[in-house]
Every structure is written in structure tokens, then in C-alpha cells.
Amino acid sequence: MEDDLKSLHEAVLVADEDAALKETRRLLEAGADPRTILETGLAAAMFELGQRWNRGEAFLPEVVAAADVFRLCGELVEPALAARGEKQARHLMVIGTVKGDLHDLGKNIVAALLRTAGFEVRDLGKDVPAERFVEAVRELRPKILGLSALLTTTMLEQKTVIEALAGAGLRPAVKVIVGGAPVTAQWAREIGADAYAANAPQAIEVALGLVGGAASGGGGGGVGG
């Protein structure tokens, strides 16, 4: 079974959909713990790939393809988790690229990696006005809100969203992570964000820290554009 988990891990790393689905089915049929399949075979592979991407050892299309394989395999594992009563209540995070900014590749990768870490993610897309973020926080009550801005001209929208949340009386109810190419930790402090996100793998660590996970929430992960 250990060899099958290793094979599944490797299949996800190289985005081999057929092999990954085959190994997932084999493990489930053999009675493997679905949580082990999810965490050791699938999520660990995505985290490793995210780390490679962060170091410049993997390319964006590889991460996107692997994330899709992860999703498909996860769909096979989910019923087994539910059958054992092990479906976890996941922390909800809302994420989006601010108004005036049409860049979303980095944000999309962050959303995919967050899901592998056990978050439920509601992606509002790109060019999202402050009112839409406020509406989402009011309606969905997420633990975290991620604001992406790739352009210096749209960074101010991150501040606008935080001010809009405060004006609606919602700011204390949600942790805000900001990120994107021109964004800095200093900027995050200036606008009253709870955390700064510099790149995708670290985004997972920051988000986990904000909801009481193992990693620290102070440093920064990518809610990049």
C-alpha cells in the first residue's frame, strides 16, 4: 500500500491523470484510509509541486494540470471520507482580484492550492468591486478574505475594500490577506490588512496560520495576480 501511495504521489506530481485515477481507485478498493490517500498521496504532492514552483523548478502549466488531477482524484476519495463520517468542516475563504485588475493566473493557482490544504474557496474572479467583496463577506461569513492586485494602479483598491468592510461593520469578522506583484508587507500594514501574501506556497502557510493551523500567519503567501 505504501508503494501505491508513492505511485499516486508521483502521478500527481507529473499530472498523469490516468495513472493517478488508477492508483486512487486501487487504494480505495484495497481498503486504504481515505484520509491517508487525500493527505499523503494527493495533498502532499500538490504542496511539493507548489514548493517547486516557488523555487522556480516548476512552471505554471504544470501546477495547473496537477491541480486538475488532484481535483479529479479528490472526487473519488470524497465519498469514502463521507461514508466514514470523516468529511471535515473546512474553513471558508473568499478570494478575488480587485476592481480594475484583470490578472488572475496567480490567484487561480492560490485558490487551487488552498483547496488542497482543506479550505473551501469561493473565487469571485477578477475586476471585483469593493461592494461585491463586502456582499460576499456579509452573506458567506468566510474566515479569510484574499485580495489580489497585480498593478500598482489597482493596489489602492485593496485599501478601498478594507475600508468598505469597516464601514459595513464587517471588518472584525474576517481576516484579510493581500498579495500581488507590487504588494509588500509594509503596504499590508499601512492599509490594515491582517497578513501579506507574496507567493502561492506561502499563501497556504499564512492562511493556515490565520485559522489556527500549524504554520505561522505572519509572513506571506501568494494571493498573487
Give structural notes.
Helix 8 links the parallel strand 4 and strand 5. It contains nine helices and five strands. Strands 2-1-3-4-5 form a five-stranded parallel beta sheet, with helices on both faces. It folds into two domains: 82 residues, Methyltransferase, Methionine Synthase (B12-binding Domains), Chain A, domain 1; 119 residues, Rossmann fold. It is α/β, with parallel strands linked by helices and 225 residues long. Helix 4 packs parallel to helix 5 and helix 5 packs across helix 9. 55% of the residues lie in helices and 10% in strands.
Global morphology:
elongated
The average pLDDT is 86
- Strand element count: 5
**Which regions contain 5 or more consecutive residues with pLDDT less than 50?**
214-224
Number of contiguous helices:
9
Task: List the defining traits of the structure above.
Rossmann fold, single chain, five-stranded parallel sheet, 9 helices, Methyltransferase, Methionine Synthase (B12-binding Domains), Chain A, domain 1, alpha/beta, 5 strands, 225 residues, 55% helix, disordered C terminus
